[in-house]
User: Which sequence fits this backbone?
């Protein structure tokens, strides 16, 4: 419990609300590699990218299915969208968060 709280302190101090939600999605769904985001999301994902946890890219006609009980699909078809791909460093951090292991 103490490690979990320590990790929350680090994450809450460094990352914004959207970044924390993205980390949660990847912790709960370790099989996904990328997440599409609306245009100009580079501001919302700034620290995750700067810290080397995600890489920003552009793609056309993206869709994402996240198992959430209803298997909702977010469809970005019809234009170029930003997407963020988790790095190996990011996978390690997400796994550490999920297992309540130290981040440092």
Assistant:
């Amino acid at each position: 419990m103490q490690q979990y709280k320590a990790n929350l302190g680090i994450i809450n101090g460094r990352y914004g609300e959207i970044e924390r939600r993205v980390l949660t999605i990847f912790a709960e769904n370790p099989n996904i590699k990328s997440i599409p985001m609306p245009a100009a999301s580079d501001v919302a994902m700034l620290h995750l990218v700067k810290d080397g946890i995600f890489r920003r890219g552009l793609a056309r006609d993206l869709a994402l299915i996240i198992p959430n009980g209803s298997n909702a699909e977010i469809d970005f078809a019809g234009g170029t969208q930003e997407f963020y791909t988790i790095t190996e460093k990011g996978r390690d951090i997400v796994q550490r968060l999920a297992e309540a292991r130290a981040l440092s």
